[in-house]
Amino acid sequence: MPFAEVPVLVLAGSCSDPGGSTVVEAVCTATGPAGLLIVAAYSFLITFILPLPSEIVLPLANELRLGLPIWANLTLVVFVASVGKSAGSVFAFHIGQEAKEAGPVVRALRRSRFDVIEWSQSKVVQLSKKYGYAGLALALSVPAFPDTLSIYAFAVLEDDYVKFALATFVGSVGRFLVWILIFRGAVASI
């Protein structure tokens, strides 16, 4: 199967039935330079507020209408989405830094029904703690896994904004590449 057809097949189901979500519908129908802005905004928002998958931006490579070859469109979509996710992650990181310094916030989290502090001891955060920022990048490379809690939990554990931004960018690019390779292989075997 030609590489140009892969992005459409990657998440055709997500965009063919956006479930009434205006945000998802806007992403799925984006075109041109404005489409790239929508990809950036969506990618920024999903890191700290929207519990939606990042991979739905990949099919846009076929729809951008920028006059570029499909591989260039795909590269552009991955780059713009990864920059957006990295920027959103840094925003979430800042919120986590503020929460870390606010004792009442941490105490409230410990008393809440869903103990974020306890969750931060999960395998994802253990990986990040053991391998540092490289572990965070690796954890964020797992397709279809929500980033938000990992980002907030890691933000409470670490404090280097530049390394965090780089790790989230690398993790985002890695996630998109893994997603593309998995589906390219799955489609090729059909």
What report would you give on this structure?
It is globular, with a radius of gyration of 17 Å. The termini are close together. It has helices spanning about 5-10, 10-15, 20-30, 30-45, 70-100, 105-110, 115-120, 125-140, 150-155, 160-190. By secondary structure, the protein is an all-alpha fold. Helix 5 packs across helix 10 and helix 8 (about 125-140) packs across helix 9 (about 150-155). The chain has one domain. The chain is built from 10 helices and no strands. Helices cover about 70% and strands about 0% of the residues.
List keywords for this structure.
190 residues; 10 helices; single chain; mainly alpha; disordered N terminus
Would you kindly provide a brief summary of this structure?
70% of the residues lie in helices and 0% in strands. The protein is mostly helical.
Determine the mean pLDDT: 76
Succession of helices and strands: HHHHHHHHHH
- Beta-strand portion reads under 5%
CA-to-CA gap between the ends? 9 Å
Q: How are the secondary structure elements laid out?
A:
Elements (H helix, E strand, L loop, with lengths): L5 H5 L1 H5 L5 H7 L3 H15 L23 H32 L1 H9 L4 H4 L3 H18 L7 H10 L3 H28 L2
Helix pairs in contact: 4-5, 5-9, 5-10, 8-9, 8-10
